[in-house]
Design a protein that fits this description.
The structure is a homodimer.
Chain A lengths: L1 E9 L3 H15 L5 E9 L5 E8 L2 H8 L2 H13 E14 L4
Helix pairs in contact in A: 1-3
Enzyme class (chains A, B): oxidoreductase
Pfam family, one (chains A, B): ABM
Keywords (chains A, B): Monooxygenase, Oxidoreductase
Chain lengths: 98, 98
């Protein structure tokens, strides 16, 4: 399992960014190996969004990156934001002490 | 609910960073309002770690930041890494299409 953490700095219209992003998310939700995502927005810097998405494997994620649909979405997103993506693995996790 | 996303760039020893971080996490797990955390490590930049932690409220998180224990942990962490924390709210989330 891999985690994509992608920080977007929005240059243009926030609503346009969220609309384009929602369309891209609908596509991702149909893709093999996609597990889930959360798009976060900074409380102090409203132009900063962070997507945290879980994928079954690096190969699953890379296959989607190579798709025509993703290519179109990322072009639209690049018109209103600057992405900064990277893939991660979880090294430690925890829940409240019972 | 708020999400802390904190990017650490580790300057010193990675094992020391993970050990100190694990101690801090044990403290966080006992705190009111703590819901869960995942510490991620970049697959391409091994010196970059990202903590994504869920808190019931901003007040719960800020109370912990003001605690003596947290003050000690962050001093130790600052000796081996550079933190870049920010608080976020989730604006969109999704799971695979059924």
């Amino acid at each position: 399992m891999v985690t994509l953490i992608n920080t977007f700095t929005v240059k243009g219209d926030f609503d346009a960014f969220e609309r384009i992003w929602a369309q891209s998310a609908e596509f991702m939700r149909t893709q093999k190996g996609f597990i889930g995502f959360k798009l976060h927005r900074s409380l102090s810097r409203p132009d900063v969004y962070v997507n945290v998405a879980l994928w079954q494997s690096r190969a699953d994620h890379q296959r989607v990156l190579a798709s025509r649909e993703f290519g179109e979405h990322i072009k639209e997103l690049a018109a209103v934001s600057v992405p900064d993506p990277d893939l991660y693995t979880v090294v430690l996790e925890g829940v409240p002490v019972q």
